[in-house]
Amino acid sequence: MLELRPNCELCDKDLPPNSSEARICSYECTFCASCADNVLHNVCPNCGGGFSARPIRPANPHREGVSLEQQPASKNRKQCPFNTAEIEEISATLRDIPPEAR
Ligand SMILES: [Zn+2]
Ligand SMILES: [Zn+2]
After folding, report:
1. Which CATH architecture has domain 7-57+79-97?
2. Which strand ranges, in their side-by-side order, compose the sheet holding 30-32?
3. Distance 63 CA to ligand 1 centre (A)
4. Residue 31 CA, ligand 2 centroid: distance in Å
5. How far is the CA of 21 from the centre of ligand 1 (A)?
6. Which of 69, 88, 91, 76 is nearest to 25 (CA)?
7. 22 within 8 A of 1, measured Cβ to Cβ
8. Which of 54, 62, 67, 83 is the most exposed place for a label (fewest CB within 10 A)?
9. How does pLDDT run across 14-73, given as a tens digit for each residue?
10. Separation of 62 CA from ligand 1 center, angstroms?
11. Where exactly are the structural domains of the chain?
12. How far apart are the CA of 63 and the centre of ligand 2, in A?
């Protein structure tokens, strides 16, 4: 099950589970759309992968046992462990290579 993390790892913006601005990599590293597009240029600083929009878990149960109420979002705020220079370096190295070729 996808871990719905509460914030952007870079700018710490709140990304509630119904946010259409949340972006994730395949490891669920989570960023806001602005950081993903304008700072990271579709390069996750933790793994080098690309981003997709985070799917929104339904607030209300439409099938038994599955909804945000039953599987709530994570409250564990994360922060990217790399510094600005390290982030810029991996982004510059990978941004022109499509994720499917990295
Ligand atoms: Zn951000
Ligand atoms: Zn990642």
Report:
1. 2-Layer Sandwich (3.30)
2. 30-32, 22-24, 52-53
3. 33
4. 10
5. 9
6. 91
7. no
8. 62
9. 999 999 999 999 999 999 999 999 999 999 999 999 999 999 999 999 999 999 999 999
10. 31
11. 7-57+79-97
12. 31
